[in-house]
Design goal:
5 helices; 193 residues; single chain; alpha/beta; seven-stranded mixed beta sheet; 25% strand
C-alpha cells in the first residue's frame, strides 16, 4: 500500500510542479517562521526551512511521506527573499542587474513512521542582464512577481531578464527540484511509475 504523499507548501508553483509527477498528493500549510537566523548563509537557510516545513507537517501526519521545499535567492552571500510588493521588487531587480545569483533551492522528504528523512540542495546559477530601469518597470507591471524569490519568474516573461541559467535539475529555479524530489520519494518507498 502506498503511503499518503503531502506537499508541505502553499506555493502554487510547487503544486503545479508536483502535478507533473502524476502522483496523488495533498497540500498542507507548514506554518513555519521563515525568518533567517543571524548570519545564516542562504544555502543553510534554504535547507533548514525545507526540512522544518517537512517536519512540521510530518508531525501532524506521521504516516505520510511529506515534501518540504524552500528557495532563497543568493546575491554574493546575501539572502534575497520574496519582495512582497512593487517597490521592493524594483529595488531587488536594480541590485541584481548585471549580476550572477545562485538560487538555493532545497527539498526535504520526511516520513515519521519510518524515520525517513533526507534533504538536498539544488543550486541554480542565474546571470541577469544589465537591465534599464524602464525595462525593470515594464517587466514588473506585466508579471507582478511579488511572491517569487528574486522578483523574477523564469517560467514566464522573466526569462527575458536573463542571460544564462545553469542547473542540473531544471525545475529547481521554479521552486521544486523534481529530479531530487523523485529520487527521495523513491528512497522513501513511493513508487512513481
Amino acid at each position: 500500500m502506498q503511503r499518503q504523499v503531502i506537499l508541505a507548501s502553499t506555493s502554487r508553483y510547487r503544486r503545479e510542479l508536483m502535478l507533473r509527477l502524476h502522483l496523488p498528493f495533498e497540500v498542507q500549510a507548514p506554518e513555519v517562521d521563515e525568518t533567517p537566523l543571524e548570519g545564516e548563509a542562504p544555502r543553510a537557510l534554504a535547507q533548514r526551512l525545507a526540512l522544518e516545513k517537512a517536519r512540521a507537517v510530518a508531525r501532524r501526519f506521521p504516516e505520510a511521506v511529506v515534501i518540504g521545499s524552500d528557495q532563497v535567492a543568493d546575491l554574493a552571500g546575501e539572502p534575497l527573499g520574496k519582495p512582497g510588493d512593487h517597490a521592493r521588487a524594483s529595488a531587488q531587480l536594480r541590485r541584481m542587474r548585471g549580476q550572477t545569483l545562485i538560487f538555493q533551492t532545497a527539498v526535504a522528504v520526511v516520513c515519521q513512521a519510518t524515520s525517513f528523512e533526507q534533504c538536498d540542495l539544488a543550486p541554480v546559477r542565474v546571470v541577469f542582464r544589465d537591465l534599464s530601469d524602464a525595462a525593470i518597470e515594464r517587466y514588473l507591471v506585466a508579471e507582478q512577481p511579488y511572491d517569487c524569490a528574486g522578483s523574477a519568474k523564469s517560467e514566464g516573461l522573466g526569462i527575458a531578464l536573463l542571460d544564462a541559467i545553469e542547473s542540473d535539475d531544471p525545475t529547481a529555479l521554479v521552486g521544486l527540484p523534481l529530479i531530487r524530489t523523485a529520487r527521495m520519494l523513491r528512497a522513501a518507498g513511493v513508487d512513481l511509475l
